[in-house]
Design goal:
alpha/beta, Alkaline Phosphatase, subunit A, 4-stranded antiparallel β-sheet, globular
């Protein structure tokens, strides 16, 4: 029989959604906010499974400036196609699937809306599955690699599968394999919050559905284990969008030439710049300094947030939008969203959440602490 430690990762189920709800009560013994890391899921998830900050694990945004090593030079030929065609979601998805298969990438891969006339200047950060050995750019082993090496049985849901299939796989594993630790990933909340925002009725209905699912999983697991210890957490929260920023157009209006004078990646909540000619930095900083949409991050902030990358591959200058302001259009998309994450990690909407059905001597305070908790719960040690 033994003990099962069940970790359930609900993407974007932040503290603002948890704190005023009776989610999993009375089973829940701990409910608390969890400090996230600055960035998106591609930054948060490696921190969760390695316990180290972005500067160490090497993951931040999907796109980094590296014209020498860029694998996308052949895609520059697509620049002749009309943007009205190649920026369609279905078209981008098909091109992304083709590139991923052709290059043998095993990680999450998506070209989003990066203009093909600039794509040859950038490299992609998640070419390998981060959950497998060798998947972390910084070389750190994930908790699952450590479990494999220690011979400790565990279950990890496949992030490529839908939620119903993931739950079914978990149920089968608990009935047959007797894992010591189980890790279930549920992703639909993130997509719903992007589309509808945090106040939509569908959000409450989805949360209720998750509660029903987890109670059913608990009841099923208790048939096979003496004790089931449940931990529910998220990677970040979600902030409702109040307006869009036309920053791309404002930078274009300076007359500076992209790829000659400067390069930039326009993410959904930030712009990251590299300066290729003297004077371009001063021109861009002047525009950013006048903007009411955000702020330039100073070196102390970059260090505190763990994103002061020594090679500057993710940016020489970071401009972060204020919570609720969406960079649109951007390299991530051309249509407005109702909700977004990736703002100041200290803002209320950014905070992740943690729920436990057991008392803990030391509850996690930040995302990196989940790595240590999973090690302790699985028997790997601190």
């Amino acid at each position: 029989m033994g003990t099962l430690s069940l970790f359930v990762f609900i993407d974007a189920f932040g503290w603002e959604l948890v704190r005023n709800r009776s989610f999993l009560e009375p089973e829940a013994r701990i409910k608390k906010p969890l400090e996230t890391v600055f960035g998106y899921s591609c930054t948060c998830d490696p921190t969760i499974i390695t316990g180290v900050p972005p500067r160490e694990h090497g993951h931040f945004s999907f796109f980094a400036y590296d014209p020498v090593k860029s694998p996308f030079k052949p895609l520059q030929a697509l620049r002749v196609l009309p943007r009205s065609l190649v920026d369609r979601g279905r078209v981008r998805n098909k091109i992304s699937q083709f590139v991923q298969k052709a290059y043998g990438y095993t990680g999450y891969f998506q070209l989003y809306a990066v203009p093909f006339k600039y794509i040859h200047l950038f490299d992609y950060s998640e070419k390998r599955d981060i959950y497998l050995e060798g998947g972390i750019n910084g070389g750190q082993p994930s908790v699952f690699v450590l479990l494999d090496k220690a011979g400790i049985p565990y279950f990890r849901s496949d992030w490529r599968k839908g939620e119903k299939e993931a739950v079914a796989d978990l149920s089968a594993a608990l009935a047959g394999g007797r894992p010591r630790l189980a890790y279930l990933y549920l992703a639909k909340m993130d997509a719903l919050l992007h589309a509808k925002g945090t106040q939509a009725a569908e959000v409450g209905a989805m949360i209720d559905g998750y509660q029903d699912t987890l109670r059913a999983v608990l009841a099923d697991a208790r048939k096979s284990y003496d004790e089931v210890r449940l931990f529910v957490f998220s990677d970040h929260g979600m902030t409702d969008i109040v307006r869009s920023s036309p920053l791309m157009a404002e930078i274009d209006a300076t007359g500076l030439v992209f790829g000659r004078d400067y390069a930039a990646v326009y993410d959904s909540t930030m712009a990251r710049f590299w300066f290729l000619r003297e004077g371009s930095r001063a021109t861009i900083e002047a525009i950013l300094g006048k903007s009411k949409d955000g702020r330039i991050l100073d070196n102390a902030t970059l260090h505190d947030w763990g994103i002061d990358f020594a090679d500057r591959r993710y940016g020489e200058l970071f401009f972060l939008l204020h919570p609720g302001v969406l960079l649109c259009p951007s390299f991530m998309g051309t249509k407005p969203l109702a909700g977004m994450h990736g703002y100041d990690p200290g803002s209320p909407g950014s905070r992740a959440s943690f729920i436990s059905t057991v008392e803990l001597e030391k509850a996690p305070e930040k995302l990196a602490d989940l790595f240590s908790l999973m090690k302790r719960e699985s028997g790997l040690g601190v």
